[in-house]
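Minutes, project huddle
Topic: does the predicted pose make sense with S-adenosylmethionine bound?
PN asked that the exact inputs be recorded in the minutes so nobody has to dig through chat later. Recorded below.
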Amino acid sequence: MLRLGHRVQRDKRVTTHVGLVARAFGASGIVIAGVKDESVVRSLRRVCEIWGRAEFVVEDGVDPLEYIENWKKSGGLVVHLTMYGLHVDDVIDEIRSSGKDLLVIVGAAKVPRVYYEIADYNVAVGHQPHSEVAALAIFLDRLYGGKELKLIYPDAKLYVEPCPRGKRVVLRG
Ligand code: SAM
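Predicted holo structure (tokens), as shared on screen:
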């Protein structure tokens, strides 16, 4: 997924959460447009080291329009999440059945018009303003039909054993 508009001073936590959701909900990686932010990259890599998914891509300082153009050139589909788009339930089946690699874009502050035009789909997770973290989570959950929540990562050093009370974390030997 592509994170637009990251502001190093104020968006560290939200962008880290966008990355955590991307990783936990089945996306292949996060690329952060424009700026470099080593602390976000480090936090996300650390989670992958401990909880698995070493292959999860974390990149910053990426030129967003060039990235999108290359994505489209190599046959991928671009989905921009925005409250102004088409309702997710009206397009998710079509998007899923395209069988193409998806690049999902979320913004921070106001997203420039060019992204609405370059996207193959502008998709709304409801038409109320909320959050990029929520929008990404719900989009991916609809895309994978909830199956992503059961994924097990073989390279995890730690994993959780569900228990009704308390915490049970297992260290893989
Ligand atoms: N006011 C900004 C604008 O007009 O682009 C949106 C700011 S919102 C806090 C940040 C991001 O959350 C948006 O760029 C969009 O990706 C996502 N978002 C928020 N509400 C959404 C919704 N209802 N559907 C889809 N995405 C949404």
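Observations noted during the meeting:
- The chain has one domain: 2-171.
- The chain has a mean pLDDT of 97.
No decisions taken; revisit at the next huddle.
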